[in-house]
């Protein structure tokens, strides 16, 4: 089972590195559709919180080193903490939730909210250290308004995929 999770985590890492090419490396489109987030969230469901945490943290950092996008400072560093929380929270909530009917949606919503909050806190710290203003308005705009298409995509695509994996007995129910 451990080998399977390591191999699948590698697959999700590769997807996280490659999916942003769908947006053509255009930061504005990537910020709207959030293609790197999807494999990390799925990793948390499929492999568990520990793997989701690790893959979430290293994906934006490795992508920055390999492809220069997102820029390491400030974007990739902030995203590393955000995606780490996504993978961890979605995996923990999904595994531990006893109310099976809605656990996919609840775990996803919890992860998205927690990840966005952590991103905002880390961004406030990093941007502050860089001398760049980062207030509540910027946080709300970047975390929710600009990202709304990607958040909607995640809320539609990921539960459908996880339900399919459960029905095919490829994922623990």
Could you explain the architecture of this structure?
There is one protein chain. The longest helix has 27 residues, at 103-129. The protein is globular and about 50 Å long. It has 173 residues and is an all-alpha fold. The chain has one domain (2-167): Arp2/3 complex 21 kDa subunit ARPC3 (Orthogonal Bundle), CATH 1.10.1760.20. The mean pLDDT is 94. The two termini are 16 Å apart. Helices cover 79% and strands 0% of the residues.
Sheet/helix structural class: mainly alpha
Helix-residue proportion:
over 70%
- How many domains? 1
Principal-axis shape equals: globular
* Oligomeric grouping of the chains: single chain
What are the segments in which pLDDT stays under 50 over at least 5 consecutive residues?
none
- Secondary structure: number of strands: 0
CATH architecture classification: Orthogonal Bundle
Average pLDDT metric: 94
Radius of gyration: 15 Å
CATH top level assignment: Mainly Alpha
Separate helix tally = 8
- CATH topology assignment: Arp2/3 complex 21 kDa subunit ARPC3
Strand content: under 5%
Order of helices and strands: HHHHHHHH
User: What gap, in angstroms, lies between the N and C termini?
Assistant: 16 Å
Q: How is the main sheet built? A: none
In a few lines, what is going on in this structure?
The chain is an all-alpha fold and 173 residues long. It is built from eight helices and no strands.
List keywords for this structure.
173 residues, mainly alpha, Arp2/3 complex 21 kDa subunit ARPC3, 8 helices, 79% helix, globular
